[in-house]
Specification:
Length: 217
Amino acid sequence: MEWQEVGGVEWVETSLRGARVVFSTRSAGSMKEGHWLLAEALGVAEERIVSGRQAHGAELAVHDVPTRQTPVVDGHVMRRPGPIGLVYTADCLPVAVAGPGGVAILHCGWRGLAAGIVARGVEVVGATDAAVGPGVGPCCYEVGDEVLAAFSELGDTVAAGRLLDLTEVSRQLLRRAGVERIDSEEICTSCNPELFFSHRRDGGPGRQAGLAWLEGG
């Protein structure tokens, strides 16, 4: 992944099988308040962005064209160039997966991961490649028994005591789903207030975003 900056707006970017993947920072403001500043920095039309009302589940919306509808979903699948899928995050992980069937961007908190959103996204696009964006790190993510039990089958590499490594959980689930190449940006949103909003740290409404779309067309 590479850090980019245009006009004071910073983001992390990578490419996956003909798809462009972007993980924003707080430099473009809270994405819940508007996408225009980030879209302008990225050089894309804001009208192409599709989003939803997130419920920490595993439901996906498939987009062939941009739409203003906001379904209750935690992931967006783009099968052709045009729409730009966006998920909101503030400690949860934005995860992009790509394959011959397109690209998907997934909102991956522990509930969504436990509900199978990774496997569902991988299956829909036949993913072989993935990118995991910034989220809360194992340094700051202390969880209870319910959360630890949800991932106990992954072994002892995903947690140290009550500190859960959400990025490692996502990597293991991606590998189990058959993804061959995984790139991850392991920077903790909670530890870096100058770069990221963090619900765990601040409890506020600020959100950054993960975006993915197919280029060309």
